[in-house]
Amino acid sequence: MKFLSLVAFVLIMVSCNKNGVSNxxxxxxxxxxxxxxxxxxxxxxxxSFDEFNNKLFIQGFMNGSDSTNLQIxxxxxxxxxxxxxxxxxxxxxxxxxxxxxxxxxxxxxxLAENKTKDGVQTTESGLQYIVLKEGTGxxxxxxxxxxxxxxxxxxxxxxxxxxxxxxxxxxxxxSQVIKGWTEGLQLMKEGAKYKFFIPAELAYGANPRPGGxxxxxxxxxxxxxxxxxx
Length: 230
Prior knowledge:
It contains six helices and seven strands, in the order H-H-H-H-E-E-E-E-H-E-H-E-E. Helix content is about 45%, strand content about 20%. Helix 1 packs across helix 2 and helix 1 packs across helix 3. The protein is of the alpha+beta class. Strands 1, 2, 3, 4, 5, 6 and 7 form a seven-stranded antiparallel beta sheet that branches.
């Protein structure tokens, strides 16, 4: 599939280079598959390269096809590609580390100031919370399953997940979520609504889901309503 995608990309680039972008209708299954492969390759290229020299790509492909006018031999070409992506990986790791250190410092400062505010309680683990409304029903344990409504934001107010916005509560096991939630839920009783301030080490730490709104070492804020303990 990797080879087919590469060939498709070359054909697309050659066609665009000679004739401009065409808008042919998709008449057959092969037409649709060909178009889908083109889309897939375009997305892969966009993810891999911030800049790309289309003309030299085509030149390299054509020179390699007939083994003439090679400016770089095959061994050198492979070395260049490996070195390029290794460099990109190192740059990304350095960027994530810098971003993580910045977020950690901001989170620690926020939590240090937040814990002095009226109504904020802090557990031994560092979890902070405010009781917005106390409940009177059952209290979950680590093995319970719960039904909740929640609204999650970053410190700057960016919403990254919200069952409230979706208009539908969610269910999960108390031990199937981040540590801050597992601990916090067990402080609540059915019907309660709490606000949690969760340090990075009780959330996703330095390795959140790639591409998401939550960045390395981010402190998270959740409004959580415990609707039901099952």
